[in-house]
Amino acid sequence: GDSVTQMEGPVTLSEEAFLTINCTYTATGYPSLFWYVQYPGEGLQLLLKATKADDKGSNKGFEATYRKETTSFHLEKGSVQVSDSAVYFCASGGSQGNLIFGKGTKLSVKP
Amino acid sequence: NAGVTQTPKFQVLKTGQSMTLQCAQDMNHNSMYWYRQDPGMGLRLIYYSASEGTTDKGEVPNGYNVSRLNKREFSLRLESAAPSQTSVYFCARRVGSYEQYFGPGTRLTVT
After folding, report:
1. Under 8 Å CB-to-CB from A81, ≥6 apart: which residues?
2. Residue B99 and residue A46: Cβ atoms within 8 Å?
3. B96: nearest CA in chain A?
4. CB pairs under 8 A between A and B
5. Does B48 touch chain A (CB under 8 A)?
6. B26-79, pLDDT tens digit by residue?
7. DSSP per residue over A4-71, as a string?
8. What is the pLDDT of residues B2-25, one digit of tens each?
9. Do A102 and B31 touch (CB under 8 A)?
10. Distances B50 to A42, A77, B87 between C-alpha atoms, Å
């Protein structure tokens, strides 16, 4: 069945470091892809999305490109801040109109 | 503001007790979803509703029932709570093909 695999955390970085969180998907066809962010004690917020191959989603300095050849949607940010500390979830569109989530990657950014 | 409210925010139940988790959207979207989030598991779909009066099972429906009486509200019921249902429950509304917006969650502990 469809699934999403993302790199396990936790990931600890210093402020202003470069961030990459890897995400790959398995699906029939070409699903829409998403990154969600969850701050402590809160719900999930949509960070960015891409709906077709080669699309680049971007928001708040974060970017991810839909790579059909490698079935990947890696999240990147050039310079992280302490305020980016959160759990990041990669997700793909499922057959029931639902989202299929990866297990989440916890990011901690130290000053 | 995701436009989705959930009540209660926290709940502690004893094994065998019942309760209903409430979810409401402030828009007029057809599709709504219930997920549970467990440590290291990402979010998993419990039930969904494609439109008013219709509901369907997701990946982990056992032990739950749902009700979609009108377009705004989608409730999740635990008839006889078990410790395995200790989790954080999120309700979401769908916008467009797959994009979803989540409520703040209900943190449930079953002792």
Report:
1. A15, A16, A109
2. yes
3. A97
4. 60
5. yes
6. 988 889 999 999 988 889 999 999 999 899 999 999 999 999 989 999 999 999
7. EEE--S-EEEETT--EEE-EEEE-SS---EEEEEE-TTS-EEEEEEE-STT-EEEETTEEEE-BTTTT
8. 799 999 999 999 999 999 999 999
9. no
10. 25, 35, 24
Q: Position of tokens 């449930």?
A: B108
Starting at the edge strand found earlier in the chain, the sheet holding B19-25 runs: B4-7, B19-25, B75-78, B64-67
Cβ atoms A100, A2 nearer than 8 A: yes
Whether B98 has its CB under 8 Å from any CB of chain A: the answer is: yes
Mark yes or no for CB contact A98/B48 under 8 Å.
yes
Residue type, B66: V
Asked if residue B91 lies in contact with residue B46, where contact means CB atoms within 8 angstroms, the answer is no
Per-residue tokens: B33: 């979803």
